[in-house]
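User: Here's a chain of 452 residues. Predict its fold as tokens.
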Amino acid sequence: MEEKINTDSKEHAVEILQQLNEYRKTGRHCDFMIKAGSEELPVHKNIMSASTTVNNLRKNAINLHCNVSKKLPSLMSWMDLDEKFISFLMESNETKAKEEGKCKMLLAWTKHDIDERKECFLGLVMKFQLTKMTLSYRRFLVENEPLIFESMQSIQSLTLSILDSHGDISSKDFNLPKNKQLVVFDQTSQRIHSLDVADKTWTPMQTMDQAIIKKLYSAVMMESYIYVICTNKLFYRLEYAESNAKWEQMANTNLQYACVVALDGFVYGIEYGKSSNIMERYDPSNNRWTRLANKSLILACESLVAADGKVFCIAGQSKQQYRATNQVEIYDPVTSTWSMDNRSLNEARYYASATATEEGIYVIGGYVNGKSLLTTVEFRSSVTKAWVMLKPMKTARHWFGSCVIDEEVYVIGGNGNPANIEEYDPEIKEWKIIETIPGKNIFPRATVAISI
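Assistant: Prediction complete.
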């Protein structure tokens, strides 16, 4: 008895379609030809007639190489194909058409009935492999195609594809702004704390080693590390972004009371707590301190800052008369030489703090000849090289820290008032107290700004 075939079986239907597709590939039993320019595609007339809705058959029985400048003859006009069929042809990996050819075809099909087909175009143009189109054609689309203007997403995708065609460029190559915070060293909790100056929130960070707590003198931030120097000449660093990081002891310096700054991947240090003309430089690549050329002036309690590719030693207390000076000495790392700035501060001072923005150098507060604490502030423009007086701080300070976050200047601690933080806004040229630090006993000269 002849075996009955279950025509309701999905497996059977798939087998039939697969067999028909094999016939089409070899040209067997094909009775119709679709032509597109010089390309010819043999098909089965009955299949084409029955598949205007184009469902599963499209994935198995269509292998079209089209040229949009030519119209499809006979069975149906290319312009009359339905949206589902067009969508399939644009997205299918089976088609041999180049992306540029697909786009030209889609544009022509859309403009044949633009009001009804515009949305289809805006959706499909995003699915092309744009980097496979010629640059000239992509530029033509951005400059001349009105349909592209209907979608900012289309313009963005085309623009990014043009950039991608010029090499391995990604947004990762761009350093996006990080959250910058002010960091203090607190003896009470025996750990470092960060302050988000935007929302005024404190966050406890890593603990300090006992050796650091007892002898900490100054600190500096460079790359992903906070470096500290102690009065026993010990030198440590901490990878602050790692919550479980431990303090590493690095090579000792010869500076006992060091004031330090970072410049171009090096740490520069001078003696601060005693009269000296010595400066050393630390190279993290070989973990070594090197003695540099001596300064001309023998001073104590100078303000040290890096700006304009140089190291500035500003003001200080002279050894001979123990009086405040207003002189500025500059070290050039390129020539390894010192020179005197021909423009001095308006006011002599020592125990001041200095910091720098892209616009110039700030020298803040300090002490003058054993008489009084200072609130005065001076600024040296990187353009004019001249020192000008700014509005004074709210609180007189000496022996304190300062740093810059987003071009605004912050001062913290000091013998005048160790419990508050002031902010200077160069836009409005005003100082204001932004935060108090009750319960903390901070190291006055170990304030740094970090990026997290």
